[in-house]
Amino acid sequence: MKIQIENIHSFIAAAETGSFSAAGRKINKTQAAISQSIQNLEIDLGYQLFDRTKKYPILTDKGERMYKNAKTMISQYDIFIDKARALYTTENTQVNLGIDPLTCCSKVQDLLIRFSETFDNIEIKLTQQNSQSLIQKLKDKQLDMVLGLFPLNQKKDFHFTTAFSINTMWVASPGFIKKHGSVLSYGDFCNTKLLLPCSDLAHMGLDEIETASHCWNIEDMNTLLNLCKRDMGVTLLPDFVIQKDLAQNNLQRVTLAFNDIEKESWKASMLWSHDMVLSEPYQWLHDQLLAIHSN
């Protein structure tokens, strides 16, 4: 069975207008052409769509059901045609984007939703790994643009734009704080197990980490949080990651007595290769990420 789309259009027009002549006027065809299209469709389907014994054609029971299905099918067909035409005029059909989970706050997630609404014909291949892994994938041409926590020396290898700040906090479990206190001296800090979300925090102004003797680098956020909540040590994480556990008193703030900074802050930055000219979707992502305020 090979059904012509034009025959479906003629059938829908006749069903909605109540006559073949009115259907012809609606879609700019002659009455004879409408009648022939519907006859061809009935031959293809093997049953009548209209009862023609009255003054005006009336949908049969099968015709009524076919009309509902045809409307749905044509709606999907029109969407398909629109997307196909959009792809013809679009340089990119897929965006290869990498995001460090430590930077993927709710505002970044909202941005991705807006991207899907603005560029609904473009797919996103989203890779979420730590910043060091994202840099390697960028070098290997597996990603086109990455958002993460990168040292300034990457400026020589890539286009580098600082996007927004991320507020962070040292936290520990209530059990840990009950045993060790909520204020750690320099000596206590150096002898405390640090549960860190990545192994390269020194470039973010956290030089004290290099003097600590017990560091666990844990990439998986859930594992890190669970270990911290089980009194294993202290951790430094973005506010958006720990806000729920803070509200539920699963975690509590830890203050470093030797650090005058009230709140630590990380800089989320974008990287892309020097030989890449930002097409419209990537330029949109770049501009929207720059518009995000501190988290």
Number of strands: 13
Euclidean distance between termini CA atoms: 58 Å
**Contiguous uncertain segments of 5+ residues:** none
Q: Which architecture of the largest domain per CATH?
A: 3-Layer(aba) Sandwich
Percent of residues in helices: 40-55%
Any idea what the shape is? elongated
What is the SS-derived class?
Answer: alpha/beta
Biggest β-sheet description: 9 strands, mixed
Pfam families: HTH_1, LysR_substrate
Protein name: LysR family transcriptional regulator
Domain HTH lysR-type: 1-60
GO molecular function: DNA-binding transcription factor activity; transcription cis-regulatory region binding
Can you describe what's shown?
The protein contains eleven helices and 13 strands. By secondary structure, it is an alpha/beta fold. It folds into two domains: 5-88, Arc Repressor Mutant, subunit A (Orthogonal Bundle), CATH 1.10.10.10; 95-295, D-Maltodextrin-Binding Protein, domain 2, CATH 3.40.190. Strands 3, 4, 5, 6, 8, 9, 10, 11 and 13 form a nine-stranded mixed sheet that branches. The mean pLDDT is 88. Belongs to the LysR transcriptional regulatory family. This is LysR family transcriptional regulator. InterPro entries: LysR_HTH_N, LysR_subst-bd, WH-like_DNA-bd_sf, WH_DNA-bd_sf.
Secondary structure elements and pairings:
Elements lengths: L4 H13 L2 H8 L3 H15 L4 E2 L6 E2 L1 H28 L5 E6 L6 H13 L4 E5 L3 H9 L5 E4 L9 E15 L1 H7 L2 E2 L1 H5 L3 E3 L18 E3 L3 H9 L4 E5 H9 L4 E2 L1 E2 L7 E10 L6 H11 L5
Parallel strand pairs: 3-4, 3-5, 7-12, 8-9, 8-10
Antiparallel strand pairs: 1-2, 5-13, 6-10, 6-11, 6-13
Helix pairs in contact: 1-2, 1-3, 1-4, 2-3
Pfam families: HTH_1 (PF00126), LysR_substrate (PF03466)
Keywords: DNA-binding, Transcription, Transcription regulation
Organism: Photobacterium sanctipauli
